[in-house]
Amino acid sequence: MSKPTTPVPAAAKLRELLAEKDKVVVCPGVYDGFTARIALAAGFDALYMTGAGTTMSMLGQADLGIATLNDMVQNAGMIAGLNRKLPLIADADTGYGGPLMVGRTTAQYMQAGVAAFHLEDQVQTKRCGHLRNKELVDEEVFLSRIKAAVNMRVQTPGDILIIARTDALQSLGFEAALNRLKKAIAIGADIAFLEGIANAEQAKQACQELSPTPVLLNNVAGGLTPKWTVQEAKDLGFKIVIYPGFALGPVYKAVADAAKELKETGDLQVPTSAGPKAIFEICGLKEAIEFDIAAGGNLYVRGV
């Protein structure tokens, strides 16, 4: 009997990617199994689970601090489980409480197979990072969140990369925001995330001052940060680029157009390339059939 092979854990794989000198990790933002499968089929090195997308897809609500730990970890675990070899970076908001709760969040994300997660310095009733008038916790509270995550990682089997995110740029200024990230790195954060970067000068300075710690760029179309290509982000010094709106915008536009067409015409034109079988194949139809047959099943021997 052949021995099972042990795949490289997703967190270790992400560490390898970040260690590559000229590598930029590009993460399309996904929020459910279908959008994750589409991104996986495209061949990306990693995925990003957007908190805004999770809140809207699971709860039908705007991203205003409504999603709970249970909502987020359930979604993250499902997405991470689609391909255990591919790193998933996930939003963890504020950690959902004080140090004990942040520790619980860390352990549950690790057990779910998440490769990295980010913790921020907004108050618990937070809002999307690209909305204005965000409220922050004191620096000590933010750092206690990071420390709680670091301590729980030590106690829990496995690994996870901790991303320190600050939303302090708009209200406290560039130097204060950078100082929060430097202190978070000093106590164990692996990656820095300066939300709402306003220009290339800020981006370049942040990447230089925080080096050798990798810096993450949140590339939100229409948000507070200028639109940069992956190459431009690399030239500025970023090591990770996440695209939270990768699926949200296109899905909204396509479904809204289809709804309008059906409502106004009483008909709907669906391209043959988007028929049921083609969509099921994106979601693992072929692999599922092969697994069933290999186990002795006969339900699919004649195909579907």
UniProtKB/TrEMBL annotation:
Keywords, alphabetical: Lyase
Keyword presence, DNA repair: no
Pfam families: PEP_mutase
PROSITE patterns xrefs: ISOCITRATE_LYASE
Catalytic reactions of this protein: (2S,3R)-3-hydroxybutane-1,2,3-tricarboxylate = pyruvate + succinate
Matching InterPro entries: ICL/PEPM, Isocitrate_lyase_ph_CS, Pyrv/PenolPyrv_kinase-like_dom, Pyrv_kinase-like_dom_sf
The UniProt record lists the keyword ATP-binding: no
MF terms in GO: methylisocitrate lyase activity
Protein name in UniProt: 2,3-dimethylmalate lyase
Organism listed in the record: Hyphodiscus hymeniophilus
Native organism taxonomy: Eukaryota, Fungi, Dikarya, Ascomycota, Pezizomycotina
